[in-house]
Amino acid sequence: MTEQAAAGALVWGVKASFRDYVRRAEGEVKITAGAEAAGDAFAFTPTDEKLKFAGEVDFDAHGGMLKVTVADPWIELADDGSASLSVVNPARLTTDRSQRLTIATLGDFTPAGDGTAKAPAYLTMNGVWLLGNVYGPGDELDTVTFPWDA
What we know:
This protein is mainly beta. The chain is 10% helix and 41% strand. The chain has one domain. It has helices at residues 16-24, 125-130; strands spanning 10-12, 28-32, 35-38, 41-46, 53-54, 56-61, 66-71, 74-77, 83-88, 100-106, 110-111, 116-119, 121-123, 144-147.
């Protein structure tokens, strides 16, 4: 699947260096629950609610010592015009999927002219925790592409 083929989806690779690390560690990336591969990124299926997406990507390495789950990403717009990206709190995946972690702030959107927009993403403290305390707050993640009809 290509980024263009993911109409209506949120397309995001999380962080290239993190994906590369998992591969070098002979780990595994599992894509399930409505997500699909989209080149080097992942396409999360749109839901009935605007800017809310479904799907899971699990990164596993070191015999389970590294386990990161990115599930059901949402883009949340604040009244002040800022935006963030949240995911299901991995500690609650099986008990309460409504509990979320804001893992990234989004920079200014760039409309692509095809009904999508692109935004740079930057780690929050929750994102630092999610990715194993390897990166710092404000570190850049992969660009997020999402449906945008503003």
